[in-house]
Amino acid sequence: MDLTSSVHNLVMSTGIANFKVGQIIMILVSFFLLFLAIKKGFEPLLLIPIGFGGILANIPVADIAGPEGFQGLIYAVGIQSGVFPLLIFIGVGAMTDFGPLIANPKTALLGGAAQLGIFGTLIGALVLSKYVPGLEFSLKDAASIGIIGGADGPTAIFLTSRLSPDLLGAIAVAAYSYMALVPIIQPPIMRLLTTEKERRIEMVQLRHVSKREKIIFPLVVLSLCIILLPDATPLIGALMLGNLFKESGVADRLSKTATNELINIVTIFLGLAVGSKLSSEQFLQPQTLGIILLGLIAFSAGTASGVILAKIMNKFSKTPINPLIGSAGVSAVPMAARVSNKVGQEYNSTNYLLMHAMGPNVAGVIGSAVAAGVLLALLK
Description:
mainly alpha
């Protein structure tokens, strides 16, 4: 081989010679995700590995996101198997305080209302697939898309891996993207559906919840799940196991491991795996873009449903309910509760809604898992 051929082969093996327009677009999108994470502080623990993973997935020639590549192997081991969502739920359970929900049980209704977006979007996906060329979704596909409305990435991955594995990448990207973009998506909806007077409402202090109540709660929830909806027990069981580590008071090492090492390691791998599906070949397709749009509709509908129900409940409640906490019924813990608190303080600086919003927020986690169990029981 002469020198000219060697130089030519070297040049043709570079990224510059092999870049496609779609790859450049997706790398720019990935850089935008990193900007939101680093500059704006939008869920950096999620968006940094997802954004960086998207860059890696679009590097030409290297095939990092392929079946034999670094990201592809992580995706197969953790997401296709459904293991990562369960490990994440153990960590989430260990970090969750169900005290606000126990102290004010009626906020569980707000967590349930936020799941209405799931079922509304399921119907919307079926309608679109009938009338829009290029979008062909089965009932199982529509159910998997609808679960994005719960703003619960692990639950979306868990359900989709069982009902529509071919859509797993697109749904994982949509679910985690909307979880991270809660501070952008929710406030306009919250302001649109509430008056300034409602946003100023101050809520009464929650009662003290005893240690015994907190220990009994995860056991009761798991028992009810076993009796009524066994299909949801993998998710609910993992969540309640992590919570029992925390509340038992005798498993500090396990609780600390679940809330630190375990969830941090899994989050890194899960983010890289989700980012692998930002490759231009998979993402820039009509079906994927349709899923992204439907996911936005689902998440917006879930937010709106929670706010509207909170407004209705406030009309009949003896103690005031600020409708802003209804938006926290989606499962993005604790970001959605923080957003409720932040918007409330914009209109009343002495208004502290965080703990009140945590009630529907943690109820939303349980609600999305229950919704997934219902869909799984009906469609598996």
